[in-house]
Structures are given as C-alpha cells and as structure tokens.
Design brief:
208 residues, alpha/beta, 3 domains, Beta-carbonic Anhydrase, Chain A
Length: 208
C-alpha cells in the first residue's frame, strides 16, 4: 500500500513539474512571437500558398533537418510543401501523408514529390516492445494497450521502425507512384540525406 501511495505521489509531482515546464516553454514562445510581430520580422517570409518550385517534400521530423534540409536543397520559404513524420515513411495508403500529397498536387499545383530519409534515423530498427515499455512507464495502463490489441490494432507492428532507410524510401516512393488517386505524370524521387553534412544520395530517380 505504501509503495502504491509513494508511486502515486511521485507521479503527481512529475506531472506538476512537467506542466510547469510546458507553460514556461509556451510563455517563452509567446514572448518571442510578440516581438517578432511588432518588429515586422515576418515581412521577409511573405509568400503565396502555392509552392514556387511545385515541389512536395516528405521528410523525417529529425531536429537536425529543420534548417539543414531546405538549405541543402536550395529551398527558400514558399518554394515547396513540406510534410514531416517519423522516418519519412508512409504507413497507410489513405493516411494523412498521402492525403497531404494529394491536396498539394490538386490544390497547389505541385508536380514532383521528393521522399527524403536520412542516415542514422531514429526509426531504423526501432523496437516496438521497448517503446511499449516506455508508454507504460509514462502512465498508460496495460489495460488500455490490451484493449487496443483486442480491437485488432497491432501496436508493436505500428510502432516498429524499418531495417533499411533505402528500402523504406523505395517502398514509400512506390506507394505514391501506384496510388489510384495520384496522376501518372507526377514525378516521384527518393533520396537519403546526411544529417551532418547535408549531402544527398539518390535512391530513386523519378525521371528514369
């Protein structure tokens, strides 16, 4: 009983500290934003909603690529539509990634898609069991996980990463190219970027 009370107390303390940390981050963002708008820093970023280079780029959410990737591709604000997720991989043919690409093609006149993964990706060999353990440690009950599994959701498979970034890119490229709602004249490339130097390697040349 004492152990349960102690665990509950520690969880409450951690939750409180976490909320305070988030609030401080939010306030920091809001304070900066106020000055950003007042000083009209936004002026140099003004552009239209249509990508100037008619590109759609699916890339990983890795923090190392936030500024590096567009710089390495010589892309400025307004040049491309950027879509990001864990691993630059497409999990479902009718999920949010494909929907975003379709909207970019039909509504914003994009005509080429670049799928860009990177070396040293956190999704490479990601272990679903280990992620599940971390989920439980953060307070999600095993009952919730069991309920999802009983509903037919294979959480371990859903969380599992990939063994090869190159193969993952090829699979995503093929899924986009063969999708029934993607026009056949849309060019789809697959590349790998070095998250340190920005060097690109072509995995799939969509022109060939």
């Amino acid at each position: 009983m004492f152990v349960r009370i102690q665990d509950s107390f520690l969880l409450n303390v951690m939750t409180t500290l976490y909320k305070e940390d988030i609030m401080s981050k939010l306030q920091e963002i809001l304070d900066y934003n106020k000055l950003f708008v007042e000083n009209k820093e936004y002026v140099k970023y003004i552009t239209s909603k249509n990508p100037n280079k008619k590109l759609v780029i699916l890339s990983c959410m890795d923090t190392r690529l936030t500024e590096l990737l567009p710089k390495a591709l010589n892309l400025k604000n307004g040049d491309a539509k950027f879509i990001k997720n864990a691993g630059a991989s497409i999990m479902h043919p009718f999920g949010s990634i494909i929907r975003s690409i379709i909207v970019a093609v039909y509504e914003f006149k994009a005509d080429e898609v670049l799928v860009i993964g990177h070396h040293g990706c956190g999704m490479s060999n990601l272990n679903g069991d280990e992620v599940l353990e971390k989920i439980v440690q953060r307070g999600i009950s095993k009952e919730v996980i069991e309920t999802l599994c009983n509903a037919g959701i294979d959480i371990k498979k859903w969380l599992h990463g990939f063994d090869s970034v190159e193969e993952s890119i090829k699979e995503s490229v093929e899924l986009i190219k063969s999708h029934p709602l993607i026009p056949k004249d849309i060019v789809v490339h697959g590349l790998v970027i070095d998250p340190e130097t920005g060097k690109l390697e072509v995995v799939v040349n969509g022109y060939e």
